[in-house]
Amino acid sequence: MTSGKLKAGSIFPAIALPTLTGTDVILGVPQQGTDWQMVVIYRGRHCPLCTRYLNELETLREQFGALGIDIVVASADSEEQLRTHMDNLSVSFPIGYGLNIEQMQQLGLYISHPRSAQETDHPFAEPGLFVINENNEIQIIDISNAPFARPDLKTLLAGLAFIRNPENNYPIRGTYL
């Protein structure tokens, strides 16, 4: 089985997902007056590491916003699973739900089957993080096949501050073919 991975510098696919507010969020389209967006894909309600990661991300949300970077997160969870998960989340960024297998594949994510019915009731995406610039190009890609390997958010924030500083003229990395 092959899986196409997105390439650094390529155009990020616009994917619309529903949110609990009743409106759709479009992955890859910055909101809130920002010109960049960070898209975080998490495994779902069943993953305590994801819950901790998203709550930590919220503590840095304003700092990302000060850099002009909007945050949106998404998973394959159902609406009901997300509603239940919200009891353990203290976040203000939009959360899309219902990411389907075709969309996961479009993003080049690793996909897992649940270990048991107690874990969840559907295939789910393993963690992914994408930073999309003002040209809708993928500036940063980080995908993992397990919840234990994710970017440290404070290190990522510092790196993005460096990248966004026009004096540094920092290009998109990893584009050698």
From TrEMBL:
<dbReference type="GO" id="GO:0004601">
    <property type="term" value="F:peroxidase activity"/>
</dbReference>
<keyword id="KW-0560">Oxidoreductase</keyword>
<dbReference type="Pfam" id="PF08534">
    <property type="entry name" value="Redoxin"/>
</dbReference>
<dbReference type="InterPro" id="IPR013766">
    <property type="entry name" value="Thioredoxin_domain"/>
</dbReference>
<dbReference type="InterPro" id="IPR013740">
    <property type="entry name" value="Redoxin"/>
</dbReference>
<dbReference type="InterPro" id="IPR036249">
    <property type="entry name" value="Thioredoxin-like_sf"/>
</dbReference>
<keyword id="KW-0575">Peroxidase</keyword>
<protein>
    <submittedName>
        <fullName>Thioredoxin peroxidase</fullName>
    </submittedName>
</protein>
<feature type="domain" description="Thioredoxin">
    <location>
        <begin position="6"/>
        <end position="165"/>
    </location>
</feature>
